C-alpha cells in the first residue's frame, strides 16, 4: 500500500470498559491492530476476549472508552454504524448462517440490501468468494446440508462478499469436530497471506504461532501480556500466562 | 407370582374393563331413537345443496376473512409488543390481554348490537360484517402472541450475523427474522385457524340473513323448521371434513419439525 491512510491503526481500542449489570467484564483495555496485521487473542473462558471482539463492531455496546475502526469512533452515536459494520467482516463460533436461504442467497443478501448491488453482480461476487473457500459446488445447497466446517467456510465467504477491510473471528473453530478444523484454518491462513487485517479470538495455539503477527493474552478483563506469538508462547513473562499455557499446550 | 405374569394379568384386566364399558354403552343406547333424530336420510337430502353452496361456503369465507385480518393486525401487534418504544409495548400488551380475557361471543354481541346503538355507526357488511370485525379483533390478539413467540424463538445469532453484515434493523427483521419466525409458527397458526373455523359459529348471535348464514346458523334454523336434529349431524360432518385434515397436518408438521432441527 503506497497511500498512507488517514488513521493510525485499523482497530484502536482505548481505555475500554464493559459491564454486564454489576459484572465488569472488561477493565480498561488498550489495544490496537494495524493494517494487514493478524492479531490473535487467547485466554481462559470468561476472560473477556470475545466481549472485546464484539465491542469492535458494537455487537456489545461499551460502557466506557473509545473504539476506533479505521479512525471512525464506533461508540459515537453520530457514526453510521451499518456503514462501518459493512467494512468489518465477522465470523462467529456458531456460524450463524441464515438457514432459510441457500448458500448463494446467504452471500448475496447483504450485498444487495446494504451495498445495493444488482442480483447479477452480487451473485458473481458470491461465486468468486465461494471458490476462494473451496465450496463453489455448494452454491445451491442449504446450510443444514453442509458439515460444520463447510458452514464455517461459507460464513467466511459471506463476510468476504462484503469486501471488508478487516475481519473479526470469534473462536471460529471451537464448535467444529477436530477433523474439520484444518480446512477452516487453511482458509484463514490464505486470507492472512493475502494481507487481510484480522483479529482472531482462538484456542488454536498452532495457528497463532504460525500465522499471527501479535499474540494477546487476556485474563479477568485485562490484557496480561502481548507480543510476538512465538515469544509469548515459548517464553511467557506473566505468571497467569505461564499457568494458562501450561494447561492448554 | 412372576413379574411378567403380573404385568400380563394387569394388562388383561384393563382390556376387559374397556370392553365391558363399550358393551354397556352399545346395549344402553336407544339406537332407533338416535337414528330417527340424527340420521334421517330424507331430511339430510333436503339440506343439500344449500348446506354446501350457502352454509359451508360462508363458513370458509368468514374464516378466510377473519384469519387474513387477524394475521395482518396480529403481526402489527407482535411487532409493537417487541418495540423498543415502551408505549407501543404497553398498548399491545393491554390490547392482547384485554381481548384474550374476554369471551369471543361477548365481543361479537357488542359489535353487532351495542356499538351501532352507542356510536350511531354500523360496521360495513351488516350483521355478518359486524361479527367478522369482532372475530378479527379477537383473533388478532391470539395470533399476535403466537407470532411474537415465533420471532423470539429465532436465535439471537441470526440478528447479530445480519447486523455484522451492516444490515439495518428493519431489513434484518424482514429478510432474516420474519421468514424464520413464520416457519416456526406455521403449526401453532394452523391450530389458530382451526379454532377460528369453529369460532365462526359464534356469528349466529349477530343474527344473519339466509344468504349470510354459516354452518351452525344454517343447521340451527333447519332444526327448528323441520323438527329433526339431522341438520346438526350434517353440519358436524362438514366441520370435521375441514378441521380433521388440518389437525392431522399440524401433527405431521410437528413430527417433521421435531426431526428436522
Brief summary of the model shown:
The complex is a heterodimer of chains A (249) and B (261). Chain A is an alpha/beta fold and 249 residues long.
Q: Roughly what percent helix of chain B?
A: over 70%
Give the number of DSSP strands of chain A: 10
The major β-sheet of chain A equals: 6 strands, mixed
Q: How many β strands of chain B by DSSP?
A: 0
**Percentage of residues assigned to helices of chain A:** 25-40%
Principal-axes geometry of chain B comes out as flat
Report how far apart the termini of chain A are. Answer: 37 Å
Strand arrangement across the biggest beta sheet of chain A: 6-7-8-3-9-10
**SSE sequence of chain A, one letter per element:** EEEHEEHEHHHEHEHEEHH
The N- to C-terminal Cα distance of chain B equals: 46 Å
**What does the average pLDDT of chain A come to?**
94
Which structural class matches the secondary elements of chain A? alpha/beta
Major pleated sheet of chain B: none
Q: Count helical runs of chain A.
A: 9
- Which two protein chains have the largest interface (Cβ within 8 Å of the partner's Cβ), and how many residues from each? A-B, 27 and 19 residues
Quaternary state of this entry equals heterodimer
Count of separate DSSP helical elements of chain B: 11
Q: Ranges of chain B with pLDDT <50 over ≥5 residues?
A: none
Write down the Rg of chain A: 18 Å
| Class by SSE composition of chain B | mainly alpha
Gyration radius over CA of chain B: 24 Å
Amino acid at each position: 500500500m503506497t497511500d498512507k491512510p488517514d488513521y493510525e491503526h485499523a482497530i484502536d481500542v482505548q481505555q475500554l470498559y464493559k459491564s454486564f449489570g454489576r459484572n465488569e467484564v472488561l477493565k480498561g483495555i488498550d489495544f490496537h491492530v494495524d493494517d494487514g496485521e493478524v492479531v490473535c487473542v487467547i485466554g481462559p473462558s470468561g476472560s473477556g476476549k470475545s466481549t472485546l471482539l464484539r465491542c469492535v463492531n458494537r455487537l456489545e455496546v461499551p460502557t466506557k472508552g473509545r473504539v476506533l475502526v479505521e479512525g471512525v469512533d464506533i461508540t459515537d452515536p453520530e457514526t453510521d454504524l451499518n456503514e462501518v459494520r459493512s467494512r468489518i467482516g465477522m465470523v462467529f463460533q456458531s456460524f450463524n448462517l441464515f438457514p432459510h436461504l441457500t448458500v448463494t442467497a446467504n452471500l448475496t443478501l447483504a450485498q444487495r440490501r446494504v451495498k445495493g448491488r444488482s442480483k447479477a453482480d452480487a451473485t458473481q461476487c458470491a461465486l468468486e468468494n465461494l471458490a476462494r473457500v473451496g465450496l463453489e459446488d455448494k452454491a445451491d445447497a442449504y446450510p443444514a446440508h453442509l458439515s460444520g466446517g463447510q458452514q464455517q467456510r461459507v460464513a467466511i465467504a459471506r463476510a468476504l462478499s462484503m469486501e471488508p477491510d478487516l475481519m473479526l473471528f470469534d473462536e471460529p473453530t471451537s464448535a467444529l469436530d477436530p477433523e474439520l478444523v484444518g480446512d477452516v484454518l487453511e482458509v484463514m491462513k490464505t486470507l492472512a497471506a493475502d494481507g487481510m487485517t484480522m483479529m482472531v479470538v482462538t484456542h488454536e495455539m498452532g495457528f497463532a504461532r504460525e500465522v499471527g503477527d501479535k499474540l494477546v493474552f487476556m485474563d479477568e478483563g485485562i490484557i496480561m501480556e502481548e507480543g510476538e506469538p512465538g515469544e509469548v508462547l515459548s517464553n511467557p513473562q506473566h505468571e497467569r500466562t505461564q499457568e494458562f499455557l501450561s494447561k492448554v499446550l | 407370582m412372576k413379574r411378567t405374569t403380573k404385568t400380563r394379568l394387569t394388562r388383561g384386566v384393563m382390556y376387559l374393563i374397556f370392553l365391558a364399558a363399550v358393551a354397556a354403552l352399545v346395549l344402553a343406547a336407544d339406537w332407533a331413537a338416535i337414528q330417527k333424530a340424527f340420521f334421517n336420510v330424507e331430511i339430510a337430502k333436503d339440506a343439500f345443496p344449500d348446506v354446501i353452496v350457502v352454509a359451508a361456503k360462508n363458513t370458509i369465507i368468514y374464516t378466510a376473512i377473519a384469519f387474513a385480518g387477524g394475521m395482518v393486525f396480529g403481526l402489527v401487534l407482535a411487532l409493537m409488543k417487541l418495540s423498543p418504544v415502551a408505549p407501543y409495548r404497553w398498548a399491545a400488551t393491554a390490547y392482547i390481554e384485554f381481548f384474550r380475557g374476554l369471551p369471543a361471543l361477548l365481543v361479537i354481541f357488542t359489535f353487532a348490537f351495542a356499538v351501532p346503538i352507542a356510536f350511531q355507526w354500523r360496521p360495513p357488511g351488516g350483521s355478518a360484517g359486524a361479527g367478522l370485525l369482532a372475530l378479527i379483533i379477537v383473533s388478532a390478539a391470539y395470533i399476535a402472541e403466537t407470532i411474537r413467540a415465533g420471532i423470539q424463538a429465532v436465535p439471537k445469532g441470526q440478528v447479530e450475523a445480519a447486523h455484522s453484515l451492516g444490515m439495518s434493523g428493519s431489513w434484518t427483521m424482514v429478510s432474516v427474522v420474519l421468514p424464520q419466525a413464520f416457519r416456526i409458527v406455521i403449526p401453532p397458526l394452523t391450530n389458530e385457524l382451526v379454532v377460528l373455523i369453529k369460532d365462526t359459529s359464534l356469528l349466529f348471535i349477530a343474527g344473519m340473513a339466509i344468504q349470510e348464514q354459516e354452518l351452525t346458523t344454517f343447521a340451527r334454523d333447519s332444526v327448528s323448521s323441520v323438527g329433526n336434529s339431522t341438520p346438526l349431524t350434517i353440519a358436524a360432518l362438514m366441520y370435521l371434513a375441514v378441521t380433521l385434515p388440518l389437525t392431522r397436518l399440524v401433527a405431521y408438521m410437528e413430527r417433521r419439525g421435531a426431526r428436522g432441527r
